[in-house]
Each structure stands twice: as C-alpha cells, then as structure tokens.
Amino acid sequence: MTLFSPCPARKIIIKLSIICAAVVFAFAAFALFSARPKTVSASSSGPTPAHTNAPRESNCTTCHADFSLNSGTGSTTISGLPANYLPGQVIPVTVTVSQADAVIYGFQLTAINGDGAQIGTFTIPQASASQMQIVAGSVDGIQRRYIEHTSNGTTPTQFGSKSWTFNWTAPAQRVGKIRFYTAGNAANSDRSPAGDYIYASSGATLSGSAIANFDGDDKSEVAVFRPSNGTWYRLNSTNNAFNSFQWGASTDKVTPGDYDGDGKTDFAVWRPSNGTWYLQRSSAGFASAQFGQNGDIPVAGDYDGDLKTDFAVFRPSNGTWYMQRSTAGFAFQQFGQNGDKPVQGDYDADGKTDIAVYRPNGGMWYLLRSASGFSSVQFGESTDKPVQSDYDGDGKTDVAVWRPSTGNWFVSGSTRGFSFVQFGAPTDRPAPADFDGDGKTDIAVFRSGTWYALRSADNSFFSTAFGESTDVPIASAYIAE
User: Fold this and answer.
1) Is the distance from CB of 471 to CB of 237 less than 8 angstroms?
2) If 11 and its partner were Cys, which of 33, 162, 181, 451 is the partner (CB 3.0–4.6 Å)?
3) Which residues pair with 419 in a beta bridge?
4) 335 and 354 in contact (C-beta within 8 Å)?
5) H-run or E-run covering 371
6) pLDDT tens-digit profile of 309-347?
C-alpha cells in the first residue's frame, strides 16, 4: 500500500505508508505499481515534500480523499516544544499519530518562521536512523526542509499509535516565533488510498514570553493593574474569561515577567519604599527579595539568557544598572546618566536582555548589546516616548518611539526598516504587545479604560473597554514613563 500516495499511476497499488508521497512498506517487497492516475510517482523513500498543511502547502487529503482533514477518531500531535527557546538549544521533539483501528502510520513535519522560511535544523538519533529521514523542498521559491518517516518507520509503536522522536536545534540567534507544522496518516493498509484518515496539527515556540501572557497561549492579554486596590484584572486570551488577582499596593510598580521560566507571565511588583520585589509565580509560587532603593527604576529582563526574568534596577542618580541574575548572579554596569530613560531589550537576538537608554535631549539611543557591543542611533525627539519592542518578529528589539502630539508611531525595524503609523491621541498611554500571537508586537494604546490596537497578523483594528482611567495597562510595564 502507498502512504501519502499523490494519486498513483502505475499498475497495482500496494498501499503501505501514508503521508503524502507513496511509501512502500518494508516487508512488502513484491512489486509495486499503481493503476491509478497520479501527480507524483510513488516512492519507498517517504512522503513528497510540502504536505504538512503549513501555509502555502497542501496536505494528503488530495489523494486520500475519502475523509476530510481531522475528521476521524484519531489525531496527530507534536510534543516537546518549550514555551520559549534559547539560541542553539537542542530540543527533542515527538510526533505521534493515533487511531485505534489503523494498521500503519506516517508523518511529515517542518519548522518555519513568520515569512515561511526554514528555521533550525533536524537531526535523527542514531537508533532511529532507519525510521526517519530529512528531505528538502520548495514552497513558492522558499526552501524548506522536512523530517518524515521511511518505509521502515510505519509500524506502530504500540497498539493504535506510532511515535517518532528526533532533535530540532534552534538557530544561533533568536528569530521570533517559530511554527511547527505536521501531517500524519493513520492507514488501513487495504492496498489503496481509500479509507485512510489524515490529521494535521501545529505548535510553536517563542524567543521570549509574550508580555501579559498569563495563560501561556503565546498571546498577550488585555490586562490592567488598579493602584487604588492593588488588583490585577485581565481577559484570558484563550476564552475571553475574566480574571482578577489582588497583588500589590497603590504605590507599587508593576514588573510582570516570567520569573520561573514556564512560559507564563507572573504577577510581580516592585515597592519603591523598601526596594522589595514581590512575586506570585505561576509554577514556583510566592517569592520576595529586597533589591534596589527608593529612586531606582525597575528594569526587569532576562539578562543572563536562561529564560527567566531577573531582578534589575536603573539608578538615575549615578547612571548605573544593578542586576540580580537568576543563573549568573549579581552584576552592575554604569551606563547612562540622570534624565535618561531605560529601554532594555534584546537588540542583538542572543537571548539576553541588553542594557540600553534613550536620551530625550537629542533623541539618542545608546545600546550596550551583550553579543554585538556598543552602538548608538539618533531616533526621536525630546517629547517622544520610547516604545521599544519586536515589531517585525525577527527576535530583535526594535528602536521605536511614539509621539503624543501627533499620535505617530515611528519604528526602525531591525529587519524591515523604517515605518510609521498614526495611531493614538495625546492623552493615551502606549501599550504595545503581541495580542494576536504571531510573534510580532502590535501597536496599541490605552485610553481612559478602553484599549485600541492594530493587529500585525492581518492589519485589523480592534478595541475593547476594559479598565478604568487610572489603571495601569500591564503591556506598558516595560515602557519608560
């Protein structure tokens, strides 16, 4: 039988494996030609590239057409993807195709960025060398690589399912959100493409937790902190459910971040009166630590690249940054002067937060990048507000400002260059975040209890009333006041 047979055309179908490219089952060594018309020749080497159901790709229902995609009782799943990845990290990934009454199974998977380009590399463990292979393909002129089963890799792992485990190595630098797409075939081995079920699924890993991503779904949530009662209010982006949590006092500064490295934003505040951080972490629970003093500005970030947010403050009085890194320990760096606005971010995509300041006098940005060293650029005016973030989804923080007088956003994208858009009014508070989960920061403002945003995924506008005029939008926590 053929697995993923793209409509066979020779003289006798022997249906063996099914993930979009006719695979001949290993012990069916007697011959194998199909009498059905087909667009691609059957091959024992594995599925034809570009059948993972990724953007601009097809899936195997084009030939295995008896049932629509994902219509059976089984499934295809991707497991092992972390919420966030580190540059160069080797990650074991498992694809499982399940269906109780299937006989043999197959799969194909690819990993791409938002532009559809191949990201990272696949390697097959030696023990599984005969079960999987890596092939190359092209989609609209963009090269992609795929990992898939071989004819020896179609036999069930256990009753009703088959799993394949391989390694995916992240790129040497952050590239924003990386998407994994896979298609699987649960085949009945009846010597034809009929009666087989095709399933598809996808997963993703980010180069850092989305701001206000409390539920771990890769999207920032509409959320506010109310100083009058020390309560956080949010709309769950997964199901739009309302949540509230009392954490903090009226004079506290909100410092949300992923302090326990589980991919979810934690409730956190810094209290200027005593320089103490108070955390309610989603996995690790309560913690507190004294770090900083009155007059400091909290500048939380992942300064050692371990995917955990670190305590850090910028002291305007002496232009010094103090960091208590969760893995690398205490550090300090003199960088900046009184009057500068801290604009920390990962400007060189090495997975570490960089020390950086914006000097309103002259509109100068000064960056001390952990991998690429010092740089400076003039971008903005004295009354602008810095709104640094990753607007083009390449994993690098972009230099950007919002001009209250005109409502204009000016962005110097590290990959896509200069852009601007008019969005907002002089009394608004900028609150950029990734609300649509595409790995790119969306332009957004908070206005007297109402949110307005432009979603980068489809350039659509949305607004929602959530909060009061004196609330602090959580998405603005990393924007210098």
Assistant:
1) no
2) 33
3) 411
4) no
5) none
6) 999 999 999 999 999 999 999 999 999 999 999 999 999
Q: How far apart are the first and last CA of the chain?
A: 66
What DSSP assignment string belongs to 308-362? Answer: S-BEEEEETTTTEEEEEETTTEEEEEE---TT-EE--B-SS-SSSPBEEEEETTT
Distance CA 385, CA 399 (A): 11
Other Cβ atoms less than 10 A from the Cβ of 437: the count is 18
Of the candidates 282, 140, 287, the residue with the CA atom closest to the CA atom of residue 213 = 282
Neighbours of 475 (CB within 10 A): 31
Classify burial at 465, counting beta carbons within 10 Å of its beta carbon; exposed 0-12, middle 13-18, buried 19 or more: exposed
Let me know: does 221 contact 235? Beta carbons within 8 Å. yes
Instruction: Give the DSSP H or E segment for 436.
Output: none
Report, as an integer, the average pLDDT of 112-116. 93
Instruction: Please state, in angstroms and rounded to a whole number, the distance separating the CA atoms of residues 45 and 52.
Output: 17
Provide the pLDDT for residue 45.
55
Give the C-alpha separation, 307 to 368, whole Å.
Answer: 20
Residue 363, Cβ neighbours under 10 Å: how many? 17
Q: Which residues pair with 288 in a beta bridge?
A: 278
